[in-house]
Each structure stands twice: as structure tokens, then as C-alpha cells.
Amino acid sequence: MAADRRASWLKGVLDLLVLASLTEGESYGYEISKTLADAGLGQIKGGTLYPVLNRLEEAGLLATEFRVTERGPGRRYYRLTDLGRETLADQASRWLAFDESVRAVLTKGRAG
């Protein structure tokens, strides 16, 4: 079991992390990816991130706005909807409770 499990762990919580990255305002895909990387989660590639953003938008958790820029391609900005904020609060509480349970088992396992 020497394989790095981070990718599979991240897959299970990426939706929640993306929602959490938008609590302070709107952002675009590259900036969201950079925020997550800066938090120590590694590089989230576009092929992973954009399907998550699309799924969250389709679920009504994110609203988007496309903006043309003076230089370079336009950007799609994402922001939380009210439903997105409610979902984040609920799912974050559930995740933290789950994390607490996992930590308790792992701590006991390391001590034994």
C-alpha cells in the first residue's frame, strides 16, 4: 500500500473545497486552482477542476458570469449562490465530523 492516496482522497472532497474557496467572493478557474495549490493540496488540473465547476453550476450551487478581457481570452467567474452557501455549511459540518472520526481511529491505531 505504498501508493499515494492523496488523489483519491481529494476526489472525495474536491466539490466541497471548491465551494469553500469561493466564500470570500467570486473567482475564475485558474485562480481557484492556485488557491487550492497554495493551501497544500497540489496542482488541480483543468481537466479535473472544470467538470467540478460545471457540476456545481448545474446543481445551482454556483452562478457564473463570462467577462471579456482587454488582453487575452475572456474568463468565466464563479460565485456561490445562496444554495451553495447552505450546502457548504451543511457538508462542511458533515466532513469535519467525519474527519474527527477518522482521526480518532488513526490516532488509536498509531498508539496501539
N- and C-termini, Cα separation = 20 Å
Radius of gyration: 16 Å
The CATH first-level class comes to Mainly Alpha
CATH architecture label name = Orthogonal Bundle
Strand content: 5-15%
Strand order of the largest sheet: 1-3-2
Q: How many separate domains? A: 1
Strand-pairing-aware structural class? alpha+beta
CATH homologous superfamily annotation: Winged helix-like DNA-binding domain superfamily/Winged helix DNA-binding domain
Can you put this structure into words, describing what you see?
The chain has 112 residues and is of the alpha+beta class. The chain has a single domain, classed as Arc Repressor Mutant, subunit A (Orthogonal Bundle), CATH 1.10.10. Helix content is 64%, strand content 12%. A hairpin with a 7-residue loop joins strand 2 and strand 3. Helix 1 crosses helix 2, helix 1 crosses helix 3 and helix 1 runs antiparallel to helix 4. The longest helix has 30 residues. The protein starts with 5 loop residues before the first helix and ends with a helix.
Outline of the structure:
The protein is an alpha+beta fold. It has helices at 6-21, 29-41, 46-58, 82-111, and strands at residues 27-28, 62-67, 75-80.
Any descriptors?
alpha+beta; 64% helix; three-stranded antiparallel sheet; Arc Repressor Mutant, subunit A
Chain-wise SSE layout:
Elements: H1 6-21, E1 27-28, H2 29-41, H3 46-58, E2 62-67, E3 75-80, H4 82-111
Antiparallel strand pairs: 1-3, 2-3
